[in-house]
């Protein structure tokens, strides 16, 4: 308890600092995060509790029927969708995972000079080729 | 324990901002949209130009009956609004308003905010799936497809500014920001803003709730307080997107007298971007689903990649 609070004391005015990964100090950054998650959950729970105290409750079978478009529902609510859409989901996973690798690299590449720009070109080239492939293959047409 | 009290104070300040700012944006939308459409908007609640309309709405929502359809997946249906809302509260914690004036400055700030904002969409998807309603399910799938399409340009645009600043800390990015970035990072700013609008499902990207096709999409079966929480999440999302755009691309607290009035500049820039979000809603009709996908994959993604190469050359050339 004491160690993380010591770290919190001196930290707010310093900006753009380098993280020290020494256990409690590093996790100290995330304690407010935990606090806001707890407080936010309490906020939502108290809203629901207030609602429970104030609201009427007169359920009838008609009221509990799915509204859908205003007409009595026909068949089940859970429809099946076409499996071919998996290509689209793949496209996202591949690109998003690629994009994640950009971030750690983004913080250091300025010091590496033109070599890193060339690497950047290779990286963007890969994504661009992938996109063009998907485009030509017709994944990006929807009509 | 004064450090603990400081943390608590910061968190409570973020909570207060989270409860107040979305209401302000909502009220401005009521009034600004009304005047853009030659109406007057709410005029009665609270007396002066209907300022208390959203407070009155809240009082009404909290008294309404809680109807969960018999066919619905009960627990998923019930917690979905909270899942949609809370990520924006967490995101607001790490967005800096002034130097040192931030809930919690994280070293991985920009990465963290992007990751957290993605979770909000899951809440909407949960609502759409658990409603046991064909239109809600279609709406939920549209939400997922929209996230997939727009998350990539959103992340790439944010990566561009992180590369330019050489740090992932949101405060660090503002400190590194210089006015000429307005030009240098302009394509990234446009991509970020447009993709952010699409992630929030704001018009003209509101295909998931297209009323002419899907009733009200994932929210059709919701009423009362849970519905209100979904709407609150939308407006909290506008605040987070506007604040992020202001901090990443418009220089945050940089401006005249920034030593004294820095926080005011951040809030002012955020307000301007939020107004732009409202204006776009009034100005443009809804995109068709295929147009929406084409804009992302064939417009924004190539533009974001182009911006990345411009940024890379710019950073090394000026180093």
From TrEMBL, chain B:
GO biological process assignments: aerobic respiration
Protein name: NADH-quinone oxidoreductase subunit H
Family per record: Belongs to the complex I subunit 1 family.
Reaction(s) catalysed (UniProt annotation): a quinone + NADH + 5 H(+)(in) = a quinol + NAD(+) + 4 H(+)(out)
Location in or out of the cell: Cell membrane; Membrane
NCBIfam families recorded: PRK06076.1-2
Keyword Hydrolase listed: no
Domain of life assignment: Bacteria
InterPro entries in alphabetical order: NADH_UbQ_OxRdtase_su1/FPO
Enzyme class: translocase
Transmembrane spans: 7-26, 82-102, 108-129, 150-174, 180-198, 227-250, 262-283, 295-317
Membrane topology: Multi-pass membrane protein
Gene it is expressed from: nuoH
GO cellular component: plasma membrane
Organism in which the protein naturally occurs: uncultured Nocardioidaceae bacterium
Cross-referenced Pfam families: NADHdh (PF00146)
GO molecular function, one term: NADH dehydrogenase activity
Keyword list, A-Z: Cell membrane, Membrane, NAD, Oxidoreductase, Quinone, Translocase, Transmembrane, Transmembrane helix, Ubiquinone
SUBUNIT field: NDH-1 is composed of 14 different subunits. Subunits NuoA, H, J, K, L, M, N constitute the membrane sector of the complex.
Main location group: membrane
Role: NDH-1 shuttles electrons from NADH, via FMN and iron-sulfur (Fe-S) centers, to quinones in the respiratory chain. The immediate electron acceptor for the enzyme in this species is believed to be ubiquinone. Couples the redox reaction to proton translocation (for every two electrons transferred, four hydrogen ions are translocated across the cytoplasmic membrane), and thus conserves the redox energy in a proton gradient. This subunit may bind ubiquinone.
PANTHER family: NADH DEHYDROGENASE SUBUNIT 1, NADH-UBIQUINONE OXIDOREDUCTASE CHAIN 1
Enzyme Commission identifier(s): 7.1.1.-
């Amino acid at each position: 308890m004491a160690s993380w609070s010591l770290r919190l004391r001196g930290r707010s005015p310093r900006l753009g600092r380098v993280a020290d990964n020494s256990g409690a100090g590093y996790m100290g950054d995330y304690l407010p995060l935990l606090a806001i998650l707890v407080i936010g959950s309490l906020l939502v729970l108290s809203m629901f509790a207030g609602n429970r105290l104030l609201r009427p409750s007169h359920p009838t079978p008609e009221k509990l029927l799915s509204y859908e478009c205003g007409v009595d529902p026909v068949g089940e609510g859970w429809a099946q969708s076409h499996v071919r859409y998996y290509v689209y989901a793949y496209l996202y996973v591949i690109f998003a995972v690629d994009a994640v690798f950009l971030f750690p690299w983004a913080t250091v590449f300025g010091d590496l000079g033109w070599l890193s720009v060339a690497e950047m070109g290779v990286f963007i080239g890969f994504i661009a080729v992938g996109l063009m492939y998907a485009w030509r293959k017709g994944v990006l047409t929807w009509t | 324990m004064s450090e603990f009290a400081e943390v608590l104070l910061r968190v409570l300040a973020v909570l207060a901002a989270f409860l107040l700012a979305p209401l302000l944006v909502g009220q401005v939308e009521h009034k600004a949209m009304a005047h853009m459409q030659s109406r007057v908007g709410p005029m009665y609640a609270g007396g002066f130009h209907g300022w208390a309309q959203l407070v009155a709405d809240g009082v009404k929502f909290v008294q309404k009956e809680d109807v969960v359809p018999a066919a619905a997946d009960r627990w998923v249906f019930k917690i979905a609004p909270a899942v949609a809302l809370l990520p924006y509260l967490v995101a607001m914690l790490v967005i800096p308003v002034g130097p040192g004036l931030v809930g919690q400055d994280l070293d991985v700030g920009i990465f963290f905010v992007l990751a957290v904002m993605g979770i909000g969409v899951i809440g909407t998807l949960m609502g759409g799936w658990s409603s046991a309603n064909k239109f809600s399910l279609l709406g939920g799938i549209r939400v997922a497809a929209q996230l997939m399409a727009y998350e990539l340009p959103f992340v790439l645009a944010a990566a561009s500014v992180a590369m330019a600043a050489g740090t992932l800390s949101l405060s660090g990015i503002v400190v590194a920001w210089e006015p000429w970035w307005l030009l240098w990072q302009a394509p990234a700013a446009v991509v970020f803003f447009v993709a952010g609008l699409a992630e929030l499902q704001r018009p003209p990207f509101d295909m998931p709730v297209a009323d002419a096709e899907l009733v009200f999409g994932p929210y059709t079966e919701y009423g009362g307080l849970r519905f209100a929480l979904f709407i609150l999440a939308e407006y909290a999302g506008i605040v987070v997107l506007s604040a992020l755009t202001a901090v990443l691309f418009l220089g945050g607290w940089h401006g005249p007298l920034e030593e004294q009035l820095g926080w005011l500049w951040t809030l002012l820039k955020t307000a301007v971007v939020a107004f732009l979000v409202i204006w776009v809603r009034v100005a443009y009709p809804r995109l068709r689903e295929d147009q929406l996908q084409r804009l992302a994959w064939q417009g924004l993604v190539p533009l974001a990649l182009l911006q990345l190469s411009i940024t890379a050359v710019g950073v090394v050339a000026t180093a």
